[in-house]
Amino acid sequence: MKRRAIRILHLDDDPVDSDRIKSTLELEGIPCEIERVATCADFLAKQKKNGHDIVISEVSAASFHGFDALEAANPDIPFIFVSRRLGEELTVEVLKRGATDCVKKQRLDRLAPAVRRALDEAEDRHGRRVAEERLRLTERAVEQSREGIVILSAKPDDQEPEIIFVNPAFTRMTGYTAAEAIGKTAGILHGPKTSRNLLDRLRAQLAKGEKFEGEGINYRKDGVEFFMHWYVEPLRDGHGKISHFVAVQRDVTEEKRAELALRKAEEKYRSIFENAVEGIFQTTPNGQFISVNTSLARMYGYDSPEDLVSGITQIDRQLYVKAERRAEFGVEMEKSGSVSKFESQIYRKDGSIIWISEHAREVRNVGGRLLYYEGTVEEITERKRAEEQIAEQAALLNKAHDAILVLNLDNTVRFWNKGAERLYGWVEQEVTGKPAEVLSASPELAELVAARAAVLETGEWTGELRQLRKNGKRITVESRCSLVRDDAGEPRSILVINTDITERKLLESQFLQAQRMESIGMLAGGVAHDLNNVLAPILMASYYLHDRYEDAEGRRVLATLQESAQRGADLVKQVLSFARGIESERSLVQPRHIMTEIANMASQTFPKSFQIRRDVSKDLWSIMGDTTQLHQVLLNLCVNARDAMPNGGVITMTGENRQITEMCKQGRTELKPGNYIVISVADTGTGIPPEVLEKIFDPFFTTKEVGKGTGLGLSTVQAIVTSHGGVIEVESEIGKGTVFRVHLPAAGAHATSAEPGELKVTLPAGQGESILLVDDEAAILEITKETLESYGYKVVTAVNGREAVHVYGQMKEKIDCALVDNMMPHMDGPATILELQKINPDIRIISVSGSSSDEIEGDRKGIRAFLTKPYSLANLLNVLREALAPAA
C-alpha cells in the first residue's frame, strides 16, 4: 500500500532549502509535500487551516524569528528547527522552548530520522490523549448517570461477589455511601419481601456467564422498601474467566405506584371510558397503547379495544401514514406538555386511510416523572376533504394569469390571488382589508366608482380601467365584475377578474401609428412619382440648354432653373425618407451646406421667440453620407431643442474638425483613432433630469404628452448616426439647457467638397448606339430623346409598354439598350421588362422610376441599372454608358 505523503509547512525565506529538504526526505523513503512561507504572518495564516503534519523552520531570517513561530504553533504538531546556526547553546535553548527536535542544515542526513521520530511521538501522544479522553468521558457518564451503577468482583467457591465501585446515583437511590457499600455484597439491599426465586435465577444465569434482567423489591439503608429494575452483565479477563460483574439499577417505585393508581382509575372511570363517543387512549411515550376505548377501536376499524392494543405495538410505524408525525407529536408534548388539534393521517385495520385530530396531555407523577400520554381522538376525514377541495380551487385561482380579487361591499379587499400579486406588485397581506381605491390614481378614481355602482345596480360590469401598480407604474386592465349573493339572495361581495392589456393597448397605438405612416408613405410615393415626372424634363432641359447659351445671363438663368429643379427633387426625396425611411446612396457630403439649410428653415418656421445661431468652421471636412438622413438628424435635434424651450430661447449649431489619436470613450461608445467632424446642437431650455437622460435613446420613450410624440425621434437619430460610423452624446443640466454632439468620421484627412456648381465634369458621349426610350410622359420622352441624340445616340420612343414590345419585336437587332419607366398605364415597367426579356433574354435594360422606393418584381436578369427621376444629365449619360459596357 502506497504511503501517504506527509504535509510539511516550511518557514524559511530560501526556496532552495525547501527543495533540499524535500529531496533529502524522499531519498530516505519519506514522501512529502512542502508548502513554504517566508513570514510569520503567512505562517500563522497557513497554520489556521490545520492541514499540515509537521512544521520545519529556520531559527531566524530577515523577515521573521523562528521562536515567534514556535510560540504561536499548534502544540499537537511536531516543530523541528533546521538551521546552519545551530550550536550547542542554541540547540539547548531551542529544546527548552518546546521544539520537538533540531537539525543542522549541514547535516540533513539526520533530518529523516528526526521526522520519523517526531511523527511517531505525535501519533503516540494523540493515541494517549484519545484514550484518556474516552476514559474521562466514561467516568463522567457513570458519575452523571441517573441509574445506579455497581461493579462487583467475582469470588471463587460460590462466594457472593464483593462490591468494589458504586456511582453517586447508587448512594442516592439506596442511602449507602460509597465507603459503606464497597467491600460488602449485594445482600445489604435484600429484605423480607425480596424474591428468593428472583435471586436464585440471578445467581444461576451469572454462573453460566449469561446476562440477567429483572424487577423486585429491595431495601434502602433506612429500611424503606422500593421497586428496583436490575440489569447485570458478567465481564471476562484476557483468559476468558469471569472477573467482574457490572450491575445497572433503576428505581421503578413510582412507575409501579402509577400502574397501581392507573388500575384503580380504570375501575372508577371504565364506564365513562367505554361509553364515550370520542376515541380515548392512553399510550406510553415510546409508542405503545396502554388502553383504548371502544369508540377508538371502532374508528380505527378493530373489533375490540383488546384487538387494537394487541395488534398495534408500534404506533408510529403501524398506525401513522407518516411515521415522523408521531415524532413531531412527542416533540410538541415535550415542549408544552400537551397538544391540541394535532392532525394526522392514520391507517385503519383494512388499510384505508382516515384523518384524525388529537387532543392529548402528559401524565406525570408527583416527582415530575413522565408516566404516559392520555387524550381523545376525533375523525375529521370529511372536513379535510372539504378543505382540500377548497385548497384545490384556491390553487387553480392562484395559477390563473389574470388578477382575481374579491371585494367586500364596503369596497375593501377580501381575497387577492397570485395573479393579482404579479399584476399589481402587492402581496395579499399588504392589501387584505384595504380599500380598493389604492389601485387607482386620482384622475381615474371616478372610473372605479362608476364601475362599482354599475355592478351593484345591474349585477355585472365589463370595461377598461386605468390603474396603478405598487411601483407607481400606470397600467390598463380589462375588468369583469360580478355581484356575488348569499343563500338568501342578498349581495355579499364583488368578484373582480382583471386582465392586463397595457401591452395590447400600446401595440394597438403603435399599429394605428404604423397605419398612418403607411398611408402617408403611399400618398408620398404617388406624389413623388408625379412630381419627379414634372421635374425630370425641367432638369433635363436645363442641362440640354446649358451648352446652347453662350451669354452669362442666359447661363445664370439656366443655373437657377437647374438648382430649383434639383432642390425640388431633393425635397421629394426628403418627404419619402420621412414617410418610408428610404435610404439613398452615400456620397461625399459637406455638412456645412446641410447645417445652413436647416438653420434657414428653422429661422423661417420657428416662432420669432427663437434665435438660431450657427458657428461652422470654414474648412470643415466632408463625410461620406446620406444627405436626406443627415437632414433628418439635424432637423430632429433642432425640433427637440425648440420643444425644450416653451417660452423661446437660443438654438446654437456648431461644426468643427477633430482629430483623435487614440481610443477614447465618447458617450456610450468608444471612438477609434481618426479624423471626425463634430456637429453640436445646443439649447438654453429646461434641461433633462438624470433619471430621464439614461432613457432618451430608447425606442418609444417620450416625455411628451399623449399624441405629441412617438418616442422614435432620438432612437432614429442614434440609428442613423451609428449607421454612418459615428456616435452621439448628450450633456444636460437642469435649468441651463442641453447639448447634443454628433461625431461623424471624415471622408479623408482633409476632405472637403466643392460648393454647388464648382465641379467640372466631362460627360461621356454615345457612339451611335440605338436606345429604346419608354415613358408615358410626353415631355420626358421629348427632352430625353433630344438630349441623348445631342450626345451621339439614336433614340426610338414608345409611350407605353405595349408599344415598346411591338417596336422592339420589329427592331430588336438594332436596339442596344432600353430605358423603361416603372409606372405606366396598361402595362407597367416590370411587365414590359418581362415581355422584352421573352423576346431577347440578353437585352440591356435600365429601369427608371419616379419613386426611389419602387422595386422591380420578377426576373432581374438583364437589368443593368436603376435610374431615379429626376436624373441629372451626368447621371443619365454615366448610367447609360455603364449599361452599354460589355458584361464582366
The best one-word shape is elongated
| Mean residue pLDDT | 82
Helix percentage = 40-55%
| Total of helices | 27
Using DSSP, what is the number of strands?
A: 36
Distance between the termini: 81 Å
Low-confidence stretches: 706-711, 749-761, 855-859
Strand order of the largest sheet: 2-1-3-6-7
Strand content: 25-35%
The class by helix and strand makeup works out as alpha/beta
Largest sheet: 5 strands, parallel
Radius of gyration: 53 Å
Summarize the structure.
The protein has 888 residues and is an alpha/beta fold.
Note the main attributes of this structure.
single chain; 888 residues; alpha/beta
Question: Topology, please?
Answer:
Layout: E1 6-11, H1 15-27, E2 32-37, H2 40-48, E3 54-57, E4 60-61, E5 64-65, H3 66-72, E6 79-83, H4 88-96, E7 101-104, H5 111-144, E8 148-153, E9 162-166, H6 168-174, H7 178-181, H8 196-207, E10 212-219, E11 225-236, E12 242-251, H9 253-275, E13 279-283, E14 289-292, H10 294-299, H11 305-311, H12 315-318, H13 324-336, E15 338-347, E16 353-364, E17 370-379, H14 381-399, E18 403-408, E19 413-416, H15 418-424, H16 428-431, H17 445-458, E20 460-468, E21 474-485, E22 491-500, H18 502-546, H19 552-580, E23 587-589, H20 591-605, E24 610-616, E25 623-625, H21 627-643, E26 649-660, E27 664-666, E28 669-671, E29 674-683, H22 690-693, H23 713-723, E30 727-733, E31 737-745, E32 770-774, H24 778-790, E33 794-798, H25 801-811, E34 817-821, H26 829-839, E35 845-849, E36 863-868, H27 873-884
Description:
With 888 residues, this protein is α/β, with parallel strands linked by helices. The strands form 9 sheets. A 5-stranded parallel β-sheet has the order 2-1-3-6-7, sandwiched between helices. Strands 9-8-12-11-10 form a 5-stranded antiparallel β-sheet, sandwiched between helices. A 5-stranded antiparallel β-sheet has the order 14-13-17-16-15, with helices on both faces. A hairpin with a 5-residue loop joins strand 11 and strand 12. Helix 18 runs antiparallel to helix 19.
